[in-house]
Design a protein that fits this description.
The complex is a heterodimer of chains A (about 200) and B (about 90). In chain A, about 40% of the residues lie in helices and about 15% in strands. Chain A has about 200 residues and is α+β, with helices and mostly antiparallel strands. Chain B is built from 4 helices and no strands. The chains are: A alpha+beta (about 200), B mainly alpha (about 90).
């Protein structure tokens, strides 16, 4: 697939790649950040620029959420997209420590609901308690890393609790619910650019 | 993240698997999908993140561990001489 696509990218504080350590050039005013070439830029992954679709957001949670434009041949992976180059369009400001705490709390509540279902307590004992503890840690911290990590862990616990109690379909449903929650945060009226559940393809260039 | 939360029927990487895969991950030798699974694990697991950081620090602390050492000039000449001798004999 060729052309440009607007997708999502979670980054560490300061627009830093969580695995590469690469500091992304940020947008200036209305202008997007500079294009970054995969494999041709020091510190960037050799095999391209990575981002994800909305449905995979719960798997990649970090402190900052950005809308990113991908260009060149697009290769969908199992849970991410890869392209020849990419640039940051804008930060999704509504993803913040406040929303991360709310998301962690919501996921902890979902885990508790799964455990409360028939057979749940026997198969997932302790998981909901771990989720509630992770949500509390996120709620009580001012560190964006701690709140983001709490959100990621609570999402994982809710999904795996669903898996233990009700199987793979429940796991997928839980991850879909989480993506919907995150997207409702990310796709607010001020974000403007982001499509629902799929990266939005722009006209080929 | 305790391994008791893992379920082998879903394609998530466990802490134990991460430890087995860390060298290949660090060298960029894992297939793409396996790399994704490892990175997804690192999002939620502080213990393995710390393990990876310690691994990287260890590699950086070992002089010459990341790059193969160039042979000395003397060793290079010895090897070349042996090679020429082998070719002449062949």
């Amino acid at each position: 697939m060729n052309g440009t696509v607007v997708a999502y990218k979670f980054l560490r504080s300061g627009a830093v790649g969580p695995f590469s350590g690469f500091r992304w050039p940020r947008p200036a005013g209305d202008r997007p950040g500079e294009w970054v070439e995969g494999g041709g830029t020091a510190g960037v992954c050799d095999d391209g620029i990575h981002a994800c679709e909305a449905r995979h957001l719960p798997l990649w949670i970090w402190e900052e959420l950005w809308a990113v434009e991908l260009d060149g041949p697009l290769q969908p992976g199992r849970a991410k997209l890869r392209a020849r180059r990419g640039r940051l369009l804008h930060r999704v400001d509504r993803w913040s420590p406040v929303s991360a705490r709310a998301f962690a709390d919501a996921c902890a509540g979902r885990a508790e609901e799964h455990v409360a279902a028939p057979g749940g307590a026997a198969t997932a004992a302790g998981m909901a308690a771990d989720g509630r503890a992770a949500a509390a840690a996120a709620a009580n911290s001012e560190d964006p890393y701690v709140t983001a990590r709490g959100a990621a862990v609570c999402a994982y616990i809710a999904a795996t609790t669903a898996l233990r109690v009700a199987g793979h379909a429940a796991y997928r449903a839980e991850r879909a619910w989480q993506a919907e929650w995150l997207l409702s945060t990310a796709d607010g009226p001020e974000s403007g650019l982001l499509g629902r559940f799929q990266a939005r393809r722009r006209d080929s260039v | 993240m305790a391994d008791s939360h893992r379920n082998s029927t879903i394609d998530e990487v466990t802490c134990r698997e991460f430890v087995e895969l860390i060298t290949d991950y660090w060298e960029g030798a894992l297939p793409g999908e396996r790399t994704e699974l490892v990175e997804q694990h690192l999002v939620i697991c502080d213990s393995c993140k710390t393990y990876l950081e310690q691994f990287e620090a260890l590699v950086e602390a070992l002089p010459g561990a990341a790059e193969p050492e160039s042979p000395t000039r003397e060793a290079e000449q010895t090897l070349l001489a042996a090679f020429r001798e082998w070719r002449a004999g062949g």
